Structures are given as structure tokens and as C-alpha cells.
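User: Please predict the structure of the protein below. I'd like the answer in C-alpha cell form so I can feed it into my own downstream comparison script.

Assistant: Understood. Taking the following sequence of 886 residues as input:
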Amino acid sequence: LYVVWERAGWGSEGIRNIIGNLAFVPLNGLVATLFLLAARNPDLDRGVRRALTLFGGGCILVLIGNAISTWYLLALDRNPSVTWADPFFLADSVLTFAALLSFPTAQRSRMERLKFGLDAAIVLIGGTVAIWYFTVLPSEGARPEGLQSYVLVFAYPLASLMVFFGATTVLLRGTLVGNRRALGWLVAAVLVSIVADQTYDLLTIELGTRAAAWTDAVYCIAYLGLVRSGEHWLFLPVSASPAAARTDFWIRTQPLTPLPIAAVAATYCLLLAATVTPWRDPVSQIAIGAVLMTLLVVIRQVIAVQQNVRLLTEAAAESRFRSLVQNSSDLIIVVHASGAVRFASPSVARVLGRQPGELMGRQLRELVDPEDRDAAAQFLVTAAQLTGVSAPTELRFRLPDGRIAQTELLATNLLEDPTVRGVVLNGRDVSERRQLEQQLKHQAFHDPLTGLANRALFLDRVGHALALGKRQHQPVSVLYLDLDEFKKVNDSMGHAEGDRLLVATAERLHAGSRIGDTIARLGGDEFAMLIEGALGDEALRAAVERIQAALSRPFLLGGTEVPMSVSIGVATSAPSDSGEDLVRNADMAMYSAKRRGKGRTEMFRAQMYAEVKRRIDLEAALRHALSHDELELVYQPIYSLRSGGLEGLEALVRWDHRRFGAMLPQHFIPLAEETGLIVQLGNWVLRRACRQLTEWRELRPGLPLRIAVNISGRQLHEEDIVTQTRDIIAESGVDPTQVTLEITESVLMQRQGSVLERLRALKDLGIQLAIDDFGTGYSSLSYLQRFPIDQIKIASPFVEELGGGSECAALARAIIGLAETLKLSTVAEGVERPDQCAALISLGCDLGQGYFFSPPLPTDEVVRRLDQPQLFCPLPRLPATLSAAV
């Protein structure tokens, strides 16, 4: 309406000038209000808010300038070409230039900045030529009066060039502004205002006054563009946020824009117009501008060609890099310093179960498990403060289906890198590895068969319990349990049933224990239980009774109920005990219970350690004695009860140790049985006895002499006993028929099949076999027929009863009669008195040995005895009455 009124020429010239200044005041105020209100929106980028504030400030300066121009008209009735309003108008150009440069732009490399500089220079030169030709040149022709007017001739064009450069920067570089429509309206309005300013300045200089003109219509168009832009900034702020644009962290390249080409074309067109138009002579100046622009265009194209070659190479490398990122199995996530996700590789779909687009803009702490959110926040804070790669950390991510993904992350601080501007997280899914580690850890500290704690974990628990007990002044007790005769179950029913027995034992131990007690399987059939708390003797005894009651019920194995007993050792901690000490003490108590008859419970006593120490020292000494030939053999003669002649000798082992003294077999043979040294000891006795027999027979070639050697049941269970015996006999050169191996009855009842096979093999060598201590073991008449036995040795308890009457001699008579029936020879052991010897003769016993005839003799004494093979006294005879009774 104002433009129509002004162009119609209504009113006087003064009224039109006043209205021309006042008409734009509402527009100035409206634009300033819109931009300043929009600048207060926190959702906008900081650079955008700063630019809008500067634009609003510039509008206020224009408003002030218009007010000053109106004051000149109303108060002074003047409308000069130079007023105090000009500094405000020029300051608006400065603020507009600063506002255009405040918009956030993408980062560019040095080459891209050079290309932008060339493009901007081309456009700026073109604009300079145009402004010079259309504004400055005509202004010089008008010859303005005064220095101020002459300065303004160049000040306004330079201000317009400055604003034009700002607009060129926005157009060429591009901005990271989401609200492209608002920015477009703003730049278009600025360019239109530049045209209006140059036209208005030219008319003002020509007319010598600030008069309204047709240029006001152009100003109206510019202001309408600014109002439209302000409306978009204020009422459509969401799309104006550059957050989405900032997620592209790659360096932007300078785009190929038509502005430089358009500037060159416009300059050459102006040159052509100036050449054919009969006006002043600006051809040379325009030609200089055209040449400069052409040179810049050529340089620009040369740089573009070089860069294209480089970009082809970089594009291939970037393509490989993108392919690696896109197909990497590891997580690659770029996070802003605030924790917002800016980039996510496709691998997040496989690892985290989410598409990369779902993570954009979300906080990292929202994706992890709630228990790890504080750790995730601290991890990002630490990574943002470091230079380089952080230490690895583990975070658990919550998947959409509720599962947990355990990840191991490394953070690289690239916040200062213009190509990234974030913290790069590289990670991998370690869920399977953690599960495997947990399984391995469980296997390392638990028994795989029963699931109970193993020795390592049990010792650790005992150590912790002792430390806690010392602080609370409470004792700690350990029960050490061992199943009696477990080996028989494995041998008779197989290892599978033995494993079932162990599992069932573990279950019963759990049932008979308290919740806080620790139960462990230490190996084989050995279990242990840790009991914490202030238990008195009665409470501890009750706990042991519960365990015994739980294990006393028969176990169902292979469809058969198998009764089992358990030996238990109990140890209670002392102030100086360690975990190993306490377990060792309980172990000692358990072995003491086994030695006392099994199925018992023993409390640890200090002297047990001394006994175990002595057994250990005795075992070491026995090993040393065997390896250094420190044992000795003595020989007890065996005489014929019919002729009184020497028939043979029984080899008996003796050990005279400098520390333990002279020891009989019963002092160290049981230890040799337990430790397995009995095999080595038995072979040594047999070898030494056979060699000695060979030497004696060389001394007395015509003397019939036999050697008897005891053989252990442990030896008979060795698979190579036949081979070893054959080699020993062959090595000594003795006649195998002159060797007798004595075996106890209990040995014959164990593994009868394998024992029978080995006895027959020994018999095939020519060796005679005798049953030692007959009648004291598992006596059975059937094995006398099944096994290849040659001789029965009557146990000394039966011989001791002889001489006391017919009832006392009944057992001995029965044994001798049985032997005669089976055609076996008999040897009476332990003959101590003449009446025992006479009774044996009357009963028909073949041979006898004992102190009545001779004690065990060393080797040199045996040699002298060989010189008197007959007894030096006649064999005794029973009185007639007693003989008849026998």
C-alpha cells in the first residue's frame, strides 16, 4: 500500500519523505522481534542462535537509523544525503556479515578451503565489478560535495561487498542447519537488500537527498523475505536443529557451484555492454576484472583436476575403509562428549539386536544394563579426558528381547579430530567367552562328578573361615571322611557303580549338613566338611552322628543294597593353625580311625602328628634300606618229626636300624603293605634266600635242604609275579623244587580267579606252595582242592594247646587228618615244649619248627648247624597214658 501511494505521487514531497521513513519502522521492529525471540530457543544450535541475535541487532540499528532520518525531516525540516543515520545503516551491514559467518558449517580440509577461497574470490570479483560499474562509477560522475559524501560513495559499496561475501560464504560452503527453508529465505532477502542498497545509494547521490523512490518496493520484498525467515526460525524450530546433520562426521568437499561461472559470464556480458554502449570508458577496468576472474577460474579448474585424481585414489581407500567398517564383526560406535550416539556400524544389529538408525541420538547409558549405567558414564568421562586409547572395560547391554550381551570396549578420544568430533568405541561380544570362563572357573574349583567343592576351593574356604573365626573368637572344625572298602565296590561292581556311590554319598552329606557348611570331595572316596560357628563338643558330636546316620543306610547299587561304613577324622582349629594345617590334622585323625578298625570317628590329638611323622620317617628309612641292602635274613630250621633230621629253613627278615633299633617283621611289614614296598621287599627276600640256599648246597652237596619264603598277598596280585619269580630262581641257580612259597589263607579268598591262575603258573615252575597259619583265616575246605597246595602249616595257637589233653588236641588232629586225606604234608609252627612235640609226633605231623628245636639263626650259625643235620637230643615221647589219650 505504501509503494502504491508513493508511486501515485499523493501528498507533498515532505509528507512522502516522512512516510517513506516511518513505513519501514514496523517492518524493522517485526523482523527484530522474530529473530530475537527465535534466538532464545535452546533447541537451536549455538551458532544459529548467535546468528539470529546478530540479525535482530542489525534490524534494531536500521530502526534507529530510520528514526534519525525521520527526526531530520520533522525537527530540522531537512533531508540531506549524509546524516547521523549512516553509521547505523553501515553497522547493520557489519552485523549482517557477522551473522552470516556465524552459521555452523562442516569441517573441510585445506584443499577444500582453497577451492572455496577461489570460488568466493571469483564471485566477489564479479560482484565488485558489478557494484563498481553500476554504483561507484556513476557516483564519481555525480561529483559529491564534501568529504563525508565522498566517503559514503565508497563506504556503502564496500559494506555491500562485505555482506555479499557473507552470503557467498553461506551459499558456497553450505551450513549444518536443518531448517533449509528459513536459511534460504534469509539469504535471498540479504541478496535483494544488497541490490536495493546500491540502487538507493546511487539515487541518493544523484538527487542529493534521501527521497523515496521505486527502490522501496525492492526493500519491501527484502523485508518480506526476512519476516518469512523469522517465522520459520520461531515457529519451526525442530527442523532447524543441526544435530542430525552433525552425525555426518566425514569431511565435506567443496561442491561444484554455478556461482563462479555465473559471475564470470556476468562480467563478460558487462564488458560487452560497456564496449558497445557510448558511455564513459569503464572498459579497461571491467577488462581487468574479467582477466582476473578468468585467471582464477583457470586456477580453480587446474586444482579441481588435480583433486579429482587424488579423490579417485582416496575414494578407493575410503571405499575399502567403509567396506571394512560396514562388514566388521566388532562394534564401532561414535559417541558425542555428552554421551549421544552419532554413528553406529551395522554390526550392532548382530551384537545388540538393534538397527544402527535406532541408536542415533540416543544416550549410551540408556542402552546398557541399569547396573552398569554409572560405570558407562564414568567410562565416557575418563575416555574424554585421555589422549589415545583407554584401558578395556566391560559393559553389559540390554537387548530388546531381554537378554544381556557382555561386551568389552576400548575408547579412543577423537573429540579434537575434525573428521570425527567424538569418542570412538570399539568393542566385541564376549558373552560366550565369559560363560566359558565361568565354566572353567567352576571346573577349576569344583569336582566334576559330584559338583562339590574340590581341594583348592575347600582350602580357600577354610582359610577365610579361620580368618573370620580369629576376629570373632570362634573355632572352626573340619571333618575328614573316607568310605571304607570303597575299592571293593569298584572291583566287584565296576567304576560306574562306584561313581554312583560317590554321587549318592555327596547327596547324603548335603542332607546331613547345615546350610552354611562347606562340603568338598578331596579325591577318590575322600570327602571333607567345613563347620563354622561356636560349636561345643556336644554339638560337634551331634553333627558327626548326623553324618554317620546319613551314611549308615545301605546304598542301592546295581539293584543290590550295599552297606557302607565311613571313617571320620575331626580337627578343631587352634590359634596358630592355617587352613592346610587344619585339613592335615583332620586327615591324620581319619587315618587313625581306619587303623583302629574303620567305621570309627577319631578326634585329632597332638601325638597323632608324632605318629604320622614316625611312619613317614620309617617309610623313608625302609626305602633307603631296600636300596642300600641294609636288611638281613635269619633262618629258622624245620625238622622232620619222624627222623629228627634237618629238612629245610624258613627265611625271616630282620632290620636293625641305628635310630629305630632292632625291628621284627611285625614292626615294618604292615607299613610295607600299605605303601606298596612289600613287592620290592618280597623280591629281595626271595632273591637273597635263593642265593644263600645255593651257597649252602655247594657246601653240603649231599644234604637235602629246602628254603621256605613268605609271599605277600600284594605280591600275588601283581601281574608279573610269575616272571619275576622265574627270573630270580634262574639268576640264583637254585632248583625250583627246593623252594616253598608260603601264602596266608586270606590271600586265597581275594580274586580267586586271578590268584588261582598265578598259583598254577608258579606251580608249573616246580615251586611248592604252602598255606601259612592255616585255621586262623577264612578257612574253607573247597579251596584246598581247587588250589595247587602242597603243604599246610598249622598255626601256632593250635600247637600251643597241645599237651593239655584230648580236647586241646582235637583241632590239630583234625587238620593233620585233613592233610593226610588230601595227601598234603603238614608243618607245625611255634613248637615250644617237649610235650607239644611229642603230641605232634603221636598225631602224625610231618614237620615242625619252633624254639624247641632252634630259634631263627644268622647265616654263620646255619652253616654250623649244617654240620649237625640231626637233632642233638632225641625226640620226646609221650607217656603211655597220655599217648593213648591222644
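That's the full C-alpha cell string. The first strand starts at residue 331 and ends at 335.
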